[in-house]
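Dear support,

Our group has been running a series of protein-ligand predictions, and this particular one with 2-acetamido-2-deoxy-beta-D-glucopyranose is the one our PI (initials K.S.) wants archived with full inputs and outputs. We had some confusion internally about which version of the output was final, so please treat the block below as the authoritative record. The input we submitted was:
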Amino acid sequence: MRVFSTCLVLFIAGVCRIAAREALHPASVDLLSEGRILIPKNNHNGWVNPEDLTPMPQCIAQQDQSAWLSTITRCTSRQCTSHFGFICTHHQWLTQLSCLSIGFSANVIKGYLPYCSRSVLAKAQLYLWIRHVTGRTWLVDVGDTNGLQTLSPASLDEGYAVFDVMHAAPKCLTGSASALSMELFQQVVASCSFTSTTQHTGNSARPWEYSESLQSIIALDSETVGYNLAGRNIRYGNYFDKSCFCGTFSVDAKKEPCSGLGEIDVTRERLWMNATCGPTSIPKNWTDALNTTEFAYIPIEDWHWPKCITDMPKQLIELTGQCATNACQLNSGGYCKVVRAVDRACFCRDIRYNSCRGLCQIFETRIDYVKWLHDLCGNLQDWHGLPENWRQLAVPTPLDMIPWRWTLKSSKHSHTASITHSGSIKETCPSTAWKLGSLALINIATFLAAFIGRRPDIHNIARSFLGPPHPRCWFFTGISIATLQILANWVNVLLVQQTLGYENVPVVQLMLLWCSMPRLSWLTTLLSGVQVFEGMKFGTTTSSLFAEIILQVLSSYYMIRTVNYGREHDFYLRGMEGAKRATSAKSVYAGALLWLIIVIVVLVQLLQATCRRLTGDKSTAVTKWERRKRTKQNMVKQLMVLFNERWTWFEEKIAHYWIEKSRGLVPTSSMTSEEGNYTVYGTLPVGGERNQVSQKVSARLYVVTVLTMLLLWIAQWLFWAGFIGLSLDEFCPPKLGVLTTVWMAFSLASTTIGSV
Ligand SMILES: *[C@@H]1O[C@H](CO)[C@@H](O)[C@H](O)[C@H]1NC(C)=O
Ligand SMILES: *[C@@H]1O[C@H](CO)[C@@H](O)[C@H](O)[C@H]1NC(C)=O
Ligand SMILES: *[C@@H]1O[C@H](CO)[C@@H](O)[C@H](O)[C@H]1NC(C)=O
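Confirmed final output from the archive:
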């Protein structure tokens, strides 16, 4: 001791320690190692230097240590360690090991054990100390250390938590005392704490010392409980044993430490206890009033507005500020992280569907708004802010799916209908069947006219009126046919306009729309074509085709508009899912698209044909095409080639049939060959190889033309049938019978002109 104190003056602590050790105990000291009782080797007949004893365990250091210290003190006395003859040259305070093993009796340990056995790790640490110092393998009763020799992570029943979770606990909880033991929260946590590996809290080189002034052994160091006792390494840090904490600390369900303090402390406290000790540690119905962002609160950063925010009233937008509050966001461990959030119930209290008008009630932005509103408030009890039919508002309505915004209905009609619920004065819209029927009637009229016009006697009568056909007449005839059709539409628009309540119909729009009605022009063309080959007429095909082109150009306005509208609103993919009358709408959009595709294909073919004719080197084009075909021979191409071959064969067949048929008629024909120079479709065979070829070309063109018109007719039927089904009350032409009659009459007239 004396040597040591001298040392302390002369050297810094570390050097001193080595010097002292070397002076006193040349032999090295075996420290505690697994499974063996180790006693310092420099043992003077059973007496050891107290500083060689293992440091104090954590659970003893956290309690009143007086009994512990006095036990060691009793076994410590001043001993002579160096003799010169009979004279003692060196005295030292040493502790007698055999005395310690008697001193640390079950009685002494008993007082410390309840606290030390809260955590299995702390108990194991105590056990190792006792075994080391006294050689005993039990603490108070034989067998009370079973299982402590072989700890594993599973020995911590409920696992452990990292100390950082204390930040998630509110002050009212960390400052409270356990309901049962009245022990403070912080103390309980301390008794259950451990570190990743055993650590020293003081002078690790000199854990014990005999203080002559106090006449007692004092502890200069203690060791923390390390998780390495469980045979596993964990990340550096402080932890606590959950089963130790939860078994010791309890919350009074009737008088929670944080209740009545408002804010979100109750939520924080309950979540903390639930996450640490599970739901049994807190009142049964605790989840009822949690202020968490699970549902009742929406974190500000997750808040979003619908697209129609520009049309939202200011007070609605300010509502988020008024309803903002603190709420708990659960982290992965189930603890609370306080965030700013919007109180859902508070916000929803003041909002309903009609709170926002304008954009919020128009088509896509309306759908977005309704979905937003439903997601936000739909699950709240007692919230009825959406109209009954909100599901229909959340998908495109039939009106949304009509590609234009004007409607054809009586302005009076809507008023009377809304005033008299009984419907006594209600003006009825023509039924769908009637609308479709009138469309069919017009077609049938054309059909009949085409057939009648084909009969030679009628034909001759008509001709006598109109005079003999002139070769160039097809142009004027075509114009006349088209004009008659347009005129019919115009007359009908006027008729509609004359009707009460329909004064404001958009004239041009309605006329254009009616131009897209399906007409049986393909049949007329077909029949007149047959006539051509029968030698009766030519030029008629051209004229009816010309009229058809004019009318199709006019109908292109609505067709293209429809396709474009459908594309803009995603109707061609999935925009119509779940919508009312979706089948009709699909028919409208499919019809318009089919129409457009046919027109584009025809135009492209026409362009190609023109180019080929202009450049004139058909052969090189073919070889080029052949070469390209060879380089890119994939499935699609092959199929196309196959189709083309079949198609050409089919065309050839028809052409052949007609040529054969007409060949017999050549002598009776009074044709001039000039005819073929400017009429593409009306050429007649005059004989000779050159004419044979041009006949073939004409016949093929003719077949293609009729087919194209047939397809366009189908597309227009699709469009119109769909439109009638889709619009229902939004398209109510008045006096439909009269209108139909007008159309039929004009159809008859134009067909007759066409066939002459
Ligand atoms: C409460 O804790 C349990 C598990 O201990 C967990 O499953 C549950 O989600 C927690 N409840 C809440 C509201 O956090
Ligand atoms: C929990 O239930 C008890 C009765 O069982 C009731 O008095 C108390 O108000 C409930 N607490 C909450 C938050 O609903
Ligand atoms: C949630 O917050 C509101 C308002 O701040 C408060 O009135 C209510 O008591 C809180 N609920 C809980 C369980 O803390």
